């Protein structure tokens, strides 16, 4: 039987989520009325606002109808992780959109940029509220350091995919890099899904040790991509003189920077998981 819980929308976190729904909807509408722009960065911004709007609406509805308590996942952990992810996505869109799609005489674009920054602030405040745990409260996987790093790995991989173009990875070396980005992203998402879905206990072996192996292998693979991508991308390939605002060559730089950033995250994640599984648990 479905019941309603008015407290879920009148408490501070519920109010913040309602504000997020309104702000993401306003941002999406403002940008949509300007017209479509053929750019993966524009598509990323639009996807961000639509995704945040839809999922936040879904969270509000499930909490209001108390259906969230019947879902086979750690609901509080999921909502906390989503608020953090939505904040990161809105932050990236709030930086990308005004840089590439806003001008001094574009009122709707300026308005969308301002509202997008407000979206980021609201999600950031929600993260602060939801992470103020009372002492003794159980903290889910995505609220731990390991879970946060997994979300960062997936998020940075999305930024890499957004900057890739088919014409860029024509050589075997660059194809290897794309394979690295794709495989590591898939396994990071798989680990997140299995964990928040509470399906790790069905494995006949230690899931934590499998995660350690994945982290180490992914770190090594990213190390190779961090070297191979710029080596094959920039060798005999200087920046064209007619390269305008974020041309294909600039996207190679973006992928290089994000590869280094994600490699660092995987290395930290590997070291932390090794310490947690093989040292801290045995003390």
UniProtKB/TrEMBL annotation:
GO terms for cellular component: membrane. It comes from Takifugu flavidus. Its main location: membrane. PROSITE patterns: MARVEL. The keyword Repeat applies. It is a multi-pass membrane protein. It comes from the Eukaryota. The keyword Phosphoprotein does not apply. The chain crosses the membrane at residues 15-34, 41-62, 82-102, 114-133, 139-164, 176-199, 211-232, 252-281. Belongs to the MAL family. This is Myeloid-associated differentiation marker-like protein. Keywords: Membrane, Repeat, Transmembrane, Transmembrane helix.
